Amino acid sequence: MNHPYQFREATISDIEILKELYKETVLTINIKDYSLEEVRDWASCGENIPHWIELINNLYFIIALNETNQAIGFASLRKDGYLHSMFVHAKFQQKGVATFLLSEIEKYAINHQIEIITSEVSLTAKSFFESKGYYIQYEQKKTGKPIMSHQLRHEKTFEIETFAYMSLFNDHFKLITRSCSMSQMFG
User: Fold this and answer.
1) What are the structural domain ranges in the chain?
2) Distance between CA atoms of 182 and 171, rounded to whole angstroms?
3) At 171, is the secondary structure helix, strand, or coil?
4) pLDDT tens, 18-48?
């Protein structure tokens, strides 16, 4: 798939940009599926700088960049296959950024022999993940600070044969799936 996006791994110097992107996305996009109280609570979780440092240092954490090198989204994956976060800037929704980020995360998972990707997915992102072969394992209510919100646990399994196939054909592959779910960042 041709796209105008690039990615790079996040560094500590990106924290302010990531915090703003995260906050704006949650307050602007997730308000469609959550109450004002829920999104304000959720957005406030992004103020924890030590937590950002921990995520950047310990996860595969990538930033999507547009043609002017502006950060327009990010995603992070733990070594055990848990997709910890994926957010796209409010102004870049429906432009293929999430597909690009998820594709890069899945390539990383395959190249590192991670067979299953799981995540808690917001109601807002549910249809996107399902369109990418992720299946709901179960629905859960997750408590942030004082607020409880709905999330959906998704999973996608990569067959062992997929690893070699992916390595040979890079962008031209079909993943064999079983089940999947994704959600909010600081849950």
Assistant:
1) 6-169
2) 23
3) coil
4) 999 999 999 999 999 989 998 999 899 899 9
Counting Cα atoms < 13 Å in the Cβ hemisphere of 61 gives 18
Alpha carbons 40 and 23: distance in angstroms, whole number: 9
Question: Looking at residues 121-130, what average pLDDT do you find?
Answer: 89
- Tell me the average pLDDT across 164-185: 33
Name the burial class of residue 43, with classes exposed (0-12), middle (13-18) and buried (19+) by CB atoms within 10 angstroms of its CB: buried
Phi, psi of 143 (to 5 degrees): -95, 125
N- to C-terminal Cα separation, the chain: 32
Residue 15 has pLDDT above 70, yes or no: yes
Cα–chain center distance at 26: 13
**Sign of the CA dihedral running 164, 65, 61, 28:** negative
* Amino acid residing at 81: G
Tell me the whole-structure pTM to 2 decimals. Answer: 0.77
Q: Which amino acid is at 58?
A: N
Q: What's the average model confidence in pLDDT over 46-62?
A: 96
Asked if 104 and 60 touch (Cβ cutoff 8 Å), the reply is: no
Are residues 177 and 132 in contact, defined by beta-carbon separation less than 8 angstroms? Answer: no
Rounded to whole angstroms, how far apart are CA atoms 100 and 158?
18
Architecture of domain 6-169: 3-Layer(aba) Sandwich (3.40)
